Amino acid sequence: xxxxxxxxxxxxxxxxAEKTYRFDQTATVISGPSGSGKxxxxxxxxxxxxxxxxxxxxxxxxxxxxxxxxxVGDEHLVLKRTIGDEDSRxxxxxxxxxxxxxxxxxxxxAEAGQTTLSDHLxxxxxxxxxxxxxxxxxxxxxxxxxxxxxxxxVYLEAINIDTQVVHHHESHFNPKRRALFKMMFGLTDSALxxxxxxxxNLRAEMKAKESEHESVSSFLAASDSRSxxxxxxxxxxxxxxxxxxETALGSLRSELEESSAADAVLRRELRQxxxxxxxxxxxxxxxxxxxxxxxxxxxxxxxxxxxxxxxxTAIEKLxxxxxxxxxxxxxxxxxxxxxxxxxxVCLQHDPPDDTIDPAAVQQAREALESQLRDAQGxxxxxxxxxxxxxxxxxxADFLTTTLRRQLDAQTRDVxxxxxxxxxxxxxxxAALGASIxxxxxxxxxxxxxxxxxxxxxxxxxxxxxTQADIKSKTAALAARGNLVSDLSSNFHTLLTELHLPxxxxxxxxxxxxLPVVDGDPFDRLQASGGGITTCVNIAYSLALxxxxxxxxxxxxxxxxxxxxxxxxxxNNPADRExxxxxxxxxxxxxxxxxDQVQLIIADNDTAPIPNSAFSTIPLDYPSPMxxxxxxPGPGHTTxxxxxxxx
Length: 646
Hints:
Elements: E1 5-14, E2 18-22, E3 27-31, H1 38-48, H2 57-62, E4 63-72, E5 75-82, H3 86-89, E6 91-95, E7 102-107, H4 117-125, E8 131-136, E9 139-144, H5 147-151, E10 155-156, H6 174-185, H7 190-223, H8 228-262, H9 264-318, H10 358-412, H11 415-477, H12 481-497, E11 506-508, E12 515-517, E13 520-521, H13 522-525, H14 530-550, E14 559-563, H15 573-593, E15 598-603, E16 615-618, H16 641-645
Parallel strand pairs: 3-15, 3-16, 10-14, 14-15
Antiparallel strand pairs: 1-2, 1-4, 4-5, 5-6, 6-7, 8-9, 11-12, 12-13
Helix pairs in contact: 7-11, 8-11, 9-10, 12-14, 14-15
């Protein structure tokens, strides 16, 4: 039988009020004028089960949370979801039906390693949780089938009821729509889906490897025209030539080592001579610094002695004179006021008498002359040391030069030719090595091409086996294709009961699982008017629902929510009769299956058949869907009715 799904109530909570809408009977009609909140109430049913619902300004501005009491399979659940920021909207709380205490909290959008609300509801419903294979932008991928996706088969939204069948125009959802149909009717199973996912992955992998093989082959064709066999033969030849070149290079190096042993003694003597010359140069530098220091001392003593001589001469010549005029400017000095014991010319203190004592001057002269003689003696000794060091350095340099010339003469005829030969032989070895590397790289590319080609071959073999398994599995499930034929018959019967004009045949396409009327797909029927497509869509959904109720192995949910079933029908007698027939079918379904099924219908008017067949949730402008919020009513210009509470 159908997968059991039923709403018992929906509670809408605002900051100031709370209101509960109950769905106690098999069929419930939510009626009221446009803008009173009928569609908003249905959208809140979608919102509370984790769906992406369109919420009107009245709901977004005033509703804090919604709470739904539902039956899913054998589970009695109370779900609560807030209407606020993004983080809070991404969680749905599961409350205990008796105490309303929090039992669990689930995320809505899938995150790695976390169980979502969809996972819980699908498990409770007994519906398989599957990942379906898909292709996007030429790449293989997968899509998770969620409870909200399945709800698209349950809820006919007013905006789509005359334009889309289970959102079939939405390219991202269409693969899920077909997969869900197959899963409901058992036209596929986990094993087949896994095979299809594997086939998709293998196809993508094969395409990638074929592209890679093409790239490598293009590189080989553009870089070198030689085949792999030609490269293999050339590589053998190059390796033989490299072995001969390395042998010749080894022989040259051995000969060079033998000739080098003969002049080892001369090289050692040259090394010692170089070291001796370096030491002699350092000794000359040190002696030169010392001589320069001695020379500075002699010069200083000579300067002191000269200064003393000049001072003594000045004292001796000038002290007897009393200056009456300035010796510089020739101005007279008699009238100048000068302190006692100060010079009348420079105004400084007169020197003490002992400083002009000839004996003292003579004693200072003798001391300086003695220092000068000592300094000159030391200077002469150090100069002799410098001359000796310079001689030794010259001898060491001469020996070094002589030994270098002998070594050059000895190696010019023996070693140099071998060095040239070794250089040529080394260059040949390097060139052969480079050629071998280039050929090896080309051969590696050929090997890579062969490996990729083999991988492609293996993938094709695996893909062929997988396709055979898919074919076999599909054949095993083919018998269930008769269910689609039976569904087509039921669909045709339902559509005939609605008395649509011109309709002769109606089937469900076995490939797209969409309705086809008189050979035309649903999209072409729109040329006949929205009323026609609305009736076709309703008949298709009713056929699915009733088929699930009568076939235990078909997992169509036992709930159907329809927003505006009489959309675009018109108001002439034939259209009114067609609307009455739609509701009669609702009533017949409710009477036949009772609690096994649930219908929730939003309509501007009440049911066009006796109201006793349906429970009614009346909405109007004085009492709109959102509790405690005054509705502006018709004629209000600030915000249209549809914008406020559609």
